[in-house]
Amino acid sequence: MTAATGAAQTAHPERPGRSDGVCSEFTVFTKIKPGEADALREDLAALSDAADDERVHAAVRQIGTLHDARHVIFDNDNRFMFASVFDGSWDTYIDDFAQTVVGARFDKVFSHSEGFPGVTDPGVKDWFVAHQAPAGVFVSAYPDLTVQQIYKDQRVDDAFQDVLDTPEFRAALDNPANAELVATPAFQKLLAEASA
Questions:
Q1: Cβ contact 60:88 at 8 Å
Q2: pTM of the model
């Protein structure tokens, strides 16, 4: 595990933020424009409602590197925090979001922050870096799994669970011709994990 306290550690030293295995954290703190906290709150509510929007989920899947994200208004409606966990390069992460439907939603949310230039502005990365604060400690529950590996693991598990539920699989387990394979520690571990 690479998470630590002290000087910021990152897989991408050109940008602030900590990494743990393949996962990196990104946390931005901004000042909300005077009088715009309620408008920001409304835009966040719309963004939250849009979380069920198939286009947003499709964009997040297309990007394929976002583990999680959260938005918080705090300090008596004066400040805003965006935090996320992602795989890969910081620059690619920012570029990917700017090119999807998520970018337009981010533009709307961050438009309530002082000085935000827009996600397609050439200076947006500098703006994010100026407002980014690396975590003191960052730990991932699954530091060796990228989002793409998690998606694949989910697909394999779904397919395997479908096989387990068939009478043909039960018949194969009960077939004496397969007894040697079924008795192997690897196969027994597979069955134990499937039933856990």
A1: no
A2: 0.80
